[in-house]
Specification:
2 domains, 3-stranded antiparallel sheet, 8% strand, Arc Repressor Mutant, subunit A, single chain, 3 strands
Length: 153
């Protein structure tokens, strides 16, 4: 529960900082589309975004209308299949997401005491992983006396 509250607190802090800025205030749907377009490999289509996000094509189109007006994405008809509309990134959209990422980073800034706890937990997790890997390796090791002579194990 404490981890959930920390995560939600981080998200709240980043969103409040975003809303307080002079820039546009995107809906969750618009932000999800932005992140999908910018953080996954193209090509992106209205149909593909609707499928990936499990929302209707008209909902994607409305969100893209707003994002296009803001200059965060641009739409282009697919030259190979005129039925498809390709959604493309823009420099302005990249700058917006870069600035938003900075807000998230600042919201997640960790105090030195908290960082010591995080590092200790990471070290414990790494040690546990190493033990598990060693156990798995030991279980799957072939005893030397069962390997036929002249063959590599």
């Amino acid at each position: 529960m404490a981890r959930n509250l920390k995560a939600l607190g981080l998200w709240r802090t980043a969103l409040i900082a975003s809303v307080r800025q002079a820039g546009p205030d995107l809906s969750a749907r618009q932000m999800a589309i932005m992140l999908q377009v910018y953080l996954t490999d193209p090509p992106h289509t209205v149909r593909g975004l609707a499928c990936t996000l499990s929302i209707s094509k008209p909902a994607v189109t409305r969100a893209l209308d707003r994002l296009s007006v803001l200059g965060f994405v641009k739409r282009k008809r697919d030259t190979e299949d005129k039925r498809n509309v390709l959604v493309q990134r823009t420099v302005r959209g990249s700058v917006f997401l870069s600035d938003f990422a900075e807000l998230v980073i600042r919201a997640g800034a960790v105090a030195p005491d908290d960082m010591a706890i995080v590092q200790a937990e990471e070290e414990m997790a790494a040690a546990a992983k190493a033990r598990l890997e060693a156990e798995l390796q030991a279980r799957h090791a072939i005893p030397e006396d069962t390997v036929p002579e002249g063959t590599a194990p």
